Amino acid sequence: MNASSGNMMAAKLKEEGRHFVALSFASGPETARSLHDQVALAIGQIRSIVKGDARFDDGYIFVGFSLGGLIARAVVEEMNDHKVRRLVSLAAVGNGAFFGPQPEDQRALPTFMSYIAPQIFAGTGFDATKYEPADYNGKYQYDHEMFSRTHPEHQKKFSQFNVSRSPVTSDVLTYNTFLSKFNNLTRASTDEEKQDQQRRRLNYLKLEEAHYLGSPEDGTIAPWQTAVLGHYSALDSVEDISTKFESLTVVDVKDTVEYQQDTYGLKSLDARGGLFLYVVPNVPHLKWPFDGEVYDKHVYPILG
């Protein structure tokens, strides 16, 4: 996706005389680069946009779609001087991605393998073209996780490996440097690390509201519940991805470690009435930014 994804929203808001700026820090193939880099680029562009513009002095709404939704949350946590009042996350891989056994995932996976995988795996050394539908029930997922384990350097290069959330909890903590950081899951062993985690949490809690929207009929992200901050249940070992694949179920956000332990502020935001989760039926992935009816019914009311 690129900055043009916001064209429809921009046109509708400008009709009302409201100011809208689409970020363009990473478009097209650039979205495949490390999310660590993209977060830094986004922060730099936001600062350049709001600097000296009085329209942003009292704060602003930050909307992120798909991968951009996860980036937007990370920006909020990392940017000490942000003035985001309302975070709106549309069909985002908000709590990582994993193609599990639920029917929605299995329907989405062939499309992912045919159209998205060739782009996001380009240059990584992972050959997604060798997998057939018979491999989608654990073999592909196991191979992907093993590849991630043996190529930790890809965390600094490719967004796909930043987004991938293994159901093996220890793998998330050990091999995913992005999700473990911005979900504040890493065990802090120094005062500096503890202060950094607290800083990110406090930055998230500067939000007045956070809105997360997703649809069971998304057809692209998996599990679709990641859009509302759910993720797959835990397995004990990477071998279990193959042997116990069908046992996986989706954990609701309220039952996740992130919420229960309030690692980055979700539970606190919810307690003060600022966390909003929307499960909207029959909205395919690309309808969120491009369908006027979806915007009018589900997005515009949040923008106020």
Please characterize this protein's 3D structure.
This protein is of the alpha/beta class. The protein folds into two domains: 199 residues, 3-Layer(aba) Sandwich (Rossmann fold); 70 residues, no CATH class. It contains 14 helices and six strands. The chain has a four-stranded parallel beta sheet. The protein has a two-stranded antiparallel sheet with strand order 4-5. Helix 2 packs across helix 3 and helix 3 crosses helix 9. The radius of gyration is 19 Å and the shape is globular.
How many individual domains? 2
**Helix-strand sequence:** HHEHEHHHHHHEEHEHHEHH
Q: Taking all residues together, what is the mean pLDDT?
A: 96
Strand order of the largest sheet: 1-2-3-6
Shape: globular
Put simply, the count of helices is 14
Layout of helices and strands, plus pairs?
Elements: H1 7-15, H2 35-50, E1 60-65, H3 67-78, E2 84-90, H4 103-120, H5 139-150, H6 159-163, H7 169-175, H8 179-182, H9 191-204, E3 209-214, E4 231-232, H10 240-243, E5 250-251, H11 257-260, H12 266-271, E6 275-279, H13 287-290, H14 292-303
Parallel strand pairs: 1-2, 2-3, 3-6
Antiparallel strand pairs: 4-5
Helix pairs in contact: 2-3, 3-9
